[in-house]
Amino acid sequence: MTDATHSTEQHIASLRPKLIAFARLQLRDSAAAEDTVQDTLVIALEKHPTFSGRSAFETWVFGILKNKILERFRHERRYFSWQEDELSDEDSFEKLFQENGRWQAASKPAHWGDPGQILENAAFWRVLDTCLLVLPDNIARVFTMREFMGLNTQEICEALTLSEANCWVILHRARLRLRACIEKGWLT
């Protein structure tokens, strides 16, 4: 084994904890996350000679993982039951806003501080991670596909056999729940 090969294997192995964390967040199943990351690492090792360097190596490996997760979603669609129900009372816009379009006093978002400083704060990211973990699985899956995997609504709908309207409802619910959770865990 050459030094370059050994170095590549070490670099790929060093990414494993981040890959596992991301896959667990997406798949909500530790065994499935382990399997998916293992498949990703095998592909990364096999395809490493074809890595062109147009992106960061870590970005390239995460791209492989995202594709593997999408393959798993497509393969396991039958396990997901999506409800086409309407927004519940807790989610309705009517409860958030007054007749004049201003926030209801109880629904008005709290001031979180300087966004730049918050994003630099490790404690904020721990609160966000915790809030993502307590979201219902279907809501977390759609939100993270959109915000972390960078998929557009059409791609999410195709991968999970959702209607576009239901996808937007789920994203709305995710944002409301995350906001409430973050405000409890971060601002109090």
UniProtKB/TrEMBL annotation:
GO MF annotation, one: DNA binding
Every RNA polymerase sigma factor 70 region 4 type domain range? 127-178
Protein's UniProt keywords contain Transcription: yes
Per the record, the coiled-coil ranges are: none
One Pfam entry name:
Sigma70_r4_2
Q: Which Gene3D superfamilies match?
A: 1.10.1740.10, Winged helix-like DNA-binding domain superfamily/Winged helix DNA-binding domain
> Keyword set for this entry?
DNA-binding, Sigma factor, Transcription, Transcription regulation
Q: Could you tell me which residue ranges the RNA polymerase sigma-70 region domain spans?
A: 13-78
Q: Which SUPFAM superfamilies does the record cross-reference, listed alphabetically?
A: Sigma2 domain of RNA polymerase sigma factors, Sigma3 and sigma4 domains of RNA polymerase sigma factors
Q: Does the keyword DNA-binding apply?
A: yes
Q: Which GO terms describe its biological process?
A: DNA-templated transcription initiation
**Taxonomically, which superkingdom?**
Bacteria
| Record family assignment | Belongs to the sigma-70 factor family. ECF subfamily.
Question: Can you say what this protein is called?
Answer: Sigma-70 family RNA polymerase sigma factor
